[in-house]
Amino acid sequence: MSNNLPQNLKGFRDFLGPEAEIRDFVKAKLAETFRVYGFQPLETPTLEYAELLLGKYGTEADKLLYKFNDRGEREVALRYDQTVPTARVISHYQNELPRFYRRYQLQNVFRADKPQKGRYREFMQCDIDIFNTKSHLADAEILACFYDALSGLGFNDLEIMVNDRTALVESLTPFATEQVDVFSIIQSVDKLDKQTVSEVAAELEAKGLVPERATAALAALDALQPTANLEKIIDAAQKLGVPVAALKFNPALARGLDYYTGMIFEIRSQSYKNGSLAGGGRYDNLISQLGGPDIPAVGGSIGFDRAVDACKDLGLLSASEKPETYLACIYDEETTPAVLELAAKLRAEGKRVEVYPEPAKLGKQLSYADKNGFTHALIIGPEELGKREYVVKDLVAASEERRAL
Amino acid sequence: MSNNLPQNLKGFRDFLGPEAEIRDFVKAKLAETFRVYGFQPLETPTLEYAELLLGKYGTEADKLLYKFNDRGEREVALRYDQTVPTARVISHYQNELPRFYRRYQLQNVFRADKPQKGRYREFMQCDIDIFNTKSHLADAEILACFYDALSGLGFNDLEIMVNDRTALVESLTPFATEQVDVFSIIQSVDKLDKQTVSEVAAELEAKGLVPERATAALAALDALQPTANLEKIIDAAQKLGVPVAALKFNPALARGLDYYTGMIFEIRSQSYKNGSLAGGGRYDNLISQLGGPDIPAVGGSIGFDRAVDACKDLGLLSASEKPETYLACIYDEETTPAVLELAAKLRAEGKRVEVYPEPAKLGKQLSYADKNGFTHALIIGPEELGKREYVVKDLVAASEERRAL
Fold first, then answer.
1. If residue A11 lies in a helix (H) or strand (E), which one and from where to where?
2. What average pLDDT does the segment B114-143 reach?
3. Are B88 and A5 an interchain contact pair (Cβ–Cβ within 8 Å)?
4. Helix/strand/coil for A68
5. Mind listing the pLDDT tens digit for each residue in B210-237?
6. What average pLDDT does range B387-396 have in this prediction?
């Protein structure tokens, strides 16, 4: 057979049957929980005017935009994230959207980044956000919703770390210098989950803080207590169903992005070691900075590829990965009508049935079933037809039984 | 609030909550049936090397490709259809795919076409296909699967018209002339579902057939009988569950595209007048023409936007359009914990609950519920809390009842 078609572009992926099905399953489960929390789906176009996206994410990001002139010489760009298009939607549909708009969005975004392990040029983002309220209840809803959504996938050792970004900045500002600003200190402090206190102190010194200042900064961090607002968020999240033990105040949690203005969080599974599954926080100034209306917001993202990886890694999807699949074998012309009727009957019960398309030796059909991971084969030969019964071969247990047609 | 963000590009759409939810529902229902028929999901990248897509759909189509040079100066293009990427997948993953690969694909495609009513530049395609067999059973599986998928959405007056494209070409070839080739005759004949016989005859004459020839061509068409293979397909489709009355041989059915090589079909709902919901047929030479391996294939597409429109038009989605939605009202700080716990309890039962994020007058919260289409409001005031009960207001029936917390 020919094979002269070009390969995929680097950083882009095909998802064949089993992998595509796992991804669809994860997506559907997450969306189900989001809807239960009152979030509405939102879909925006893959292409937007480049003007909408340019300058919104910083100079470095602008270089990663897939940008081109379309046939009408409009400068257009591929979706880069879901927040800027949402800011546009909020801005343009103000009269149609609820005052406290809460939306989820699960779409692919595009970044002309250097592809590497776990980093793709097209990948799915999974965001939930609540707009237009500063209430701690909205923060708590985000935490509870993500906790529930991930629990629904089977994660049973989730840990939500929370902090207050503003309190963090305030507590570290006294230790900043002209050379080492507070965000640089925060960047180092953020590594405390992977590095020891002395390693982080050393990094701060290398950046230019005198040792006493570095030590004092880390001590100040250590003395931090949850703000009153963070206490209220934690308390409400617990009432909404997050177990007390799963919620942890972590004064060193910083999150990379500068735009957070209050509560920040990260969610991990303790048995999955390749990073957090979700993160986010409050960003009361971002929507207006992006050109949208001046409204507060709180939300977060699940790392979709990582969540799928973690599910597979921890064996959480066994049922959905391997639903029962039936190959209906074709014996001869006489028995085929009965096989087709049986296929129709089982399909009506929701079972997955593929009809082998051609008459062939039974051994060949069974080896096809085996090779392609079918769990069962259905057989009706002349003898079975005479007795109005069929054989179900369980290909996993290597057993068989006869049932009435 | 500000409103200075650019609008959508023409021909591109935002799907807000209710509309996005209907689309997700239709998509999920269709995919569910496809899986029951043994079809596997496939996802291919939004971007491909332009070389893969160019020249595959004809010169006119090449002009509609969204094509550009990426940052690495590779010539790339946005997905134009799902068949060419599938040909690439079949070509590159031959050892991983089942011999009789059957896949469904529901992704957006992009065409730099002139936008007009019902024609968009980004829209979803919904394809199922079975590869590598010429068996009539595969043709029948496609018909039965689409019938089931559309029935599953609620259409109860479906009509499948079938014909044999090869027999049609053969029967009309004797009437072709140098001036009017057989495909031009077929093009006119295809209009017989909307025009009278004499109108079509007049069109054939206008094209250059002498009146006797035009009349004879239409008479030949009228005399056509289903081929033996088409009889077998119809018979098998009935065994697979398609009602006899829903399957109709239509010798004038032609389908626009030239690549069909055998059975062709179209599916309509008799009560929906804006066109067919699905169509397709056998195309044994196309995959190799597209640069893939030389394998036969049969399949079809559901017109996704049209199917969604028809569902709405015929009121088929009322349940999914309007699931019960609860607004949990916030009365004061004392009662809030009980409200949050109630929200968690109802969510655990799968109910959709939004917690109103801020304390506000009850009237304001109820008018928020009303304005945003909530079906129920949940209220716990101090009195209810004392009695360990809550009020559920049914906002549709304008009634209320008290239940134990």
1. none
2. 96
3. yes
4. strand
5. 999 999 999 999 899 999 999 999 999 9
6. 97
Distance CA B283, CA B263 (A): 9
Contact B45 A8 (CB under 8 A): yes
**DSSP secondary structure of A79-144:** ---SHHHHHHHHHH-TTTS-TT-EEEEEEEEE--PPPBTTB-SEEEEEEEEEES---HHHHHHHHH
- Euclidean distance between CA atoms A394 and A402, whole angstroms: 11
B302, β-bridge pairs = B126, B278
In this prediction the pTM is 0.94
B335 vs A contacts (CB less than 8 Å): none
Per-residue pLDDT at A193 exceeds 90:
no
Cα separation, B106 vs A122, whole angstroms: 17
Pairing of the two strands A389-394 and B40-41: unpaired
Please state, in angstroms and rounded to a whole number, the distance separating the CA atoms of residues A369 and A374.
5
Alpha-carbon distance A15 to A37, whole Å?
Answer: 30
Q: Is A362 exposed, middle or buried (0-12, 13-18, 19+ CB in 10 A)?
A: middle
Residue A312, number of CB atoms within 10 A of its CB: 15
Q: Which of B20, B112, B135 is opposite residue A357, by nearest beta carbon? A: B135
Q: Using CA atoms, how far apart are residues B31 and B15, in angstroms rounded to an integer? A: 20
The Cβ of residue A196 has, within 10 Å, a number of other Cβ atoms equal to 10
How much is the mean pLDDT over chain B?
Answer: 94
Can you tell me the distance from the alpha carbon of B26 to that of B28, in angstroms, rounded to the nearest whole number?
6
Cα–chain center distance at B282:
19
Mind listing the pLDDT tens digit for each residue in A1-52? 445 788 999 999 999 999 999 999 999 999 999 999 999 999 999 999 999 9
Q: Do B52 and A24 touch (CB under 8 A)?
A: no
Torsion of CA B329, B333, B335, B341, to 10 degrees: 80
Give Cα separations from A314 to A118, A148, A150, A324 (angstroms): 18, 18, 13, 21
Q: Band the pLDDT of B140: cuts 50, 70, 90.
A: very high
Angle between helices A182-189 and A211-222 in degrees, nearest 10: 70
> How far, in Å, CA of B145 to CA of B36, rounded?
9
Which residues neighbour A272 within 8 Å (Cβ) at sequence distance 6 or greater?
A155, A310, A313, A314
The answer to whether the Cβ–Cβ distance between B98 and A368 falls below 8 Å is: yes
| Residues B133/B230, Cβ–Cβ less than 8 Å | no
CA distance A321 to A315: 10
The predicted pLDDT at position B58 comes to 82
Helix (H) or strand (E) holding B61: helix B59-62
Beta strand segments in A132-185, E: 158-164
pLDDT in tens, B315-328: 998 755 578 999 99
Check A7 against B295: CB less than 8 A apart: no
Task: Say if the Cβ atoms of A122 and B52 lie within 8 Å.
Answer: no
Strand partners, A302: A126, A278
Q: What is the pLDDT of residues A68-123, one digit of tens each?
A: 999 999 999 999 999 999 999 999 998 899 999 999 999 999 999 998 888 999 99
- What's the first-to-final CA gap in chain B, in angstroms? 41
How many CA atoms does the CB half-sphere of B365 hold within 13 Å? 22
Nearest to A353 among B38, B91, B355 (CB): B38
Give B243 to chain A, closest Cα distance, Å: 12
E strand or H helix that includes residue A328: strand A325-328
Residues of A in contact with B236 (CB under 8 A): 336-337, 340
Of B44, B112, B352, the CB nearest to A71: B112
Contact flag B135-A239 (C-beta cutoff 8 Å) = no
Q: Contact at 8 Å (CB) between A161 and A237?
A: no
Residues sharing a CB contact under 8 Å with residue B363, sequence separation 6 or more, in sequence order: none
Q: Minimal Cα–Cα distance from B80 to chain A, Å? A: 13
